[in-house]
Amino acid sequence: MNAGVTQADAEHDAQAARRERKVRWLSRIGYWAVQLLARTWRVELLGEPNWPTKDGARVPVVVAVWHGLMLAPIWTQRNRGIMALASEHGDGEIIARILERLGYARPARGSSTHGGVRGMITMIQALRAGTSLAFTPDGPRGPARVTQPGLFVAAHRANVPIVPMSMHAAHTWHLRSWDRYAIPKPFARVRVTIGEPFVPRFDGDALAAGESERFAAAMDATEARASA
Known about the structure:
single chain, 228 residues, alpha/beta, Cobalt-precorrin-4 Transmethylase, domain 1, two-stranded antiparallel ribbon, 6 helices, 13 strands, 40% helix
């Protein structure tokens, strides 16, 4: 029995080592792929004054960007110590490490479907400590452009505004995924927009009627400015 347990432990350790090597190499490849591609873009950032400040410094907010449009906004907000939410399933650890290499804080782990409570607690604590969050309201699995409630809950409990972001590029690849993930092509002109702060209204502990629609309109307006 002891030999059997030892063999099982050894197999488990070997699998864990293989997973770690895979994550390490794929995160490195992903990071350099983003770097090489994004540095060719001609980026225009609009709406910077919409980010709330105090004494000339940014204050913590929840940044909201649709899952399929997040690549260019991620690039423009690198090296600012923003915290994102990375899924606990699939390629979450790979994405987490790429974000860290891009100058983001160690991501909270969880999603709207997996480990969400733990991730939400981490995010609210980070906001209260002065760290901004990056949030994909329709992630990680959609439906596309349908906001999950966690976005509003985090902003409300931490008493911070939501800042919409979006992007547009005339020359873009779209993945065959649920969100039609947009990747601007090399040397593309990319416009990234920061929208006006959105403060969700609550009726007690529940989101007030019509707030999801009001937020969707704010996201639409931010995207429209990017594509204008």
